[in-house]
Structures are given as C-alpha cells and as structure tokens.
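ok new one. same drill as before - structure tokens go in, u give me an amino acid for every spot. 58 of them this time. try not to just spam alanines like last time pls lmao
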C-alpha cells in the first residue's frame, strides 16, 4: 500500500491499544481498557442483532 492509503496500513483495533501501556496501570491505560471493552461489546451486540435477523432453517 502506498500513497494516500499508506496511513491506513497499521490502523486496526489492536494498534490502538498497546499492552505495555495497559501493564503500567496509569489513568490512560484505564481509559484505553474501557474503550477496548466498549468496542468489544458493541461488536458483540451488532453480531447478535445480525444473527437474530437471519432466517435459519434448522
């Protein structure tokens, strides 16, 4: 990837939260852990919503 999309190469959920900062247990790591938990719960609720809307013939 190059050019304008080169900046998006390392943009993932995991790149936003570094384990080293979470291990220090300072105030910023608590906010990062809370944000990671919130993102996880939102993805989980979205997956449940999509699954319930599907018409599965079992």
């Amino acid at each position: 990837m190059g050019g304008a999309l080169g900046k998006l190469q390392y943009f993932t959920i995991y790149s936003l939260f570094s384990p080293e900062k979470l291990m220090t247990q300072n105030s910023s790591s608590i906010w990062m852990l809370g944000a990671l938990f919130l993102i996880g719960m939102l993805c989980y609720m979205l997956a449940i919503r999509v699954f319930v809307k599907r018409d599965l013939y079992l």
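The mean pLDDT is 79. and btw The two ends are 43 Å apart (CA to CA).
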